[in-house]
């Protein structure tokens, strides 16, 4: 202790710390020889001391920023009140910035996974419901497969494929559906006849609704009464089975734009054959009730439509 006092006293005598305004004893009392700050602080009037304080603050700020990344370093010891207050302020600001950044990243990540989380929740809920109802595992597996295919093909867990379209205004619904189904309608002879007005076609398009079938699902069955016809959408294919045998012999494959069930739509007749989904498939359905609704609004045009259907069916064998 005596040696330290002598060393500090000699430093002042030699003019090495001319900026200090307190005695060596006070310095010794303040620092207590172990780097701790006492009840009062040191005052320094020289420019180098201000530069040193500024450097300390900058190093502390950098350390606060880099510490969350495990890149921080140990700043020099802090002795003055200015240094301590700076540390407290920088730490507070740094913590606020960290919380803001982490919160923003968490929101961003959750928005990316929101739809997938809803899908996973749907799968879990469906499995639990099947177990609760005692549904056999083979059937429960097909149910889960339905939602898996629905998610893979549409990135949605809603079975209503037209839900988004139906939320639009009537004018937009007509435009969107006409854009989606226009090429399909043009391929059907009795709907692309020049004698039919565009208003009738638009009304029929507005009444179309989309139904999704899984692989091996039966769309229509021989001998059943039907009241709708279907158009194959952009996904999947349908196999028409041989009506003369009970074996599952496919005699025709229907793909995008093809259609079936015209007689059922027109006459509510029995189905003459069976159609099976060969893959996951979208079917756009037009029901007899929809045709009757159009007939009420355009009776003359609807008679022309039915006449065109009859002409078409007389020239080609149709599968109902």
From TrEMBL:
Keywords per UniProt: Membrane, Transmembrane, Transmembrane helix
Keyword hit for Membrane: yes
PROSITE patterns the record matches: CNMP_BINDING_3
UniProt domain Cyclic nucleotide-binding: residue ranges: 192-294
Parts of the chain that traverse the membrane: 50-73, 85-112
Domain of life per record: Eukaryota
SMART domains assigned to the protein according to its UniProt record, in alphabetical order: cNMP
One Pfam family this sequence matches: cNMP_binding
GO MF annotation list: voltage-gated potassium channel activity
GO biological process: regulation of membrane potential
CDD domains according to UniProt: CAP_ED
Record's protein name: Cyclic nucleotide-binding domain-containing protein
